[in-house]
Amino acid sequence: MTHNRTDNGLVARVENLTKSYGSGSNLVTALEGVSLGITAGEFTAIMGPSGSGKSTLMHISAGLDSPTTGRVWVGDTEITSMNDSELTVLRRRRIGFVFQAFNLVPTLDVEGNILLPFELDGRRPTGDERAWIDQLIESLGLRERLSHRPHELSGGQQQRVAIARALGMRPDLVFADEPTGNLDSRTGREVLTLLRTASSTYGQSIAMVTHDPVAASYADRIVILADGRVVEELGRSTPDEISSLMLSLEGAS
Q1: E-strand spans in the chain?
Q2: What are the residues facing 229 on neighbouring strands?
Q3: Positive or negative, the Cα torsion across 3, 215, 201, 133?
Q4: What's this model's pTM, rounded to 2 decimal places?
Q5: What's the CATH superfamily of 10-252?
Q6: Are 45 and 215 in contact (CB under 8 A)?
Q7: Domain positions in the chain
Q8: 76 or 249: which carries more pLDDT confidence?
């Protein structure tokens, strides 16, 4: 399947993005003039202190929230002017999500949760898609768990199901929001390794919001926000390098 990437190799981008809440003396600016591209096939971490705008940036990039000003593209599709139903279809077909809280449907078994995006799209997976899903199930160690409900799984297993669900339709882009936030450190490392493998082996584009320098060290590229602006970009870095940069930024603000 060809991914909807633009000529410049970007799978998503935002231009001069501003997001404000409230008005007058209660005006809060979450993002201020952010321009950023997410490169196809790359694992990007978006970092920043609490209140830096990183979650707002992700929500707007994924069409879950709209900007006050600025423009947003997924591939070559500008989504800024789309209505809710168009955005719903775009998210369902072209964007995958992995959340801190797993967000599995408790009444569905593992297989039902993995196939949910196809169900919502009103279709069954094609032969190629089914083969890909089987490969995901195998590589994520879920083969023996397919008939289990989420409450019968550990946190790490639930997050693997969420990853399989996010990758099943081969979306243009997967957004991961603090995906290891509810996991112990060993399980968290396994989940981060899976995300990195999805990017390096299968060419999956991933944008992960995190405040954790260890999680960010798995990414190819690290974008750091502070006070609603992009203040720094790094290539692959160690947790210590990321920590010291974050500390220096917090000292400066």
Answers
A1: 10-21, 28-39, 43-47, 69-74, 77-78, 95-99, 173-177, 205-209, 221-226, 229-235
A2: 226
A3: negative
A4: 0.89
A5: P-loop containing nucleotide triphosphate hydrolases (3.40.50.300)
A6: yes
A7: 10-252
A8: 76
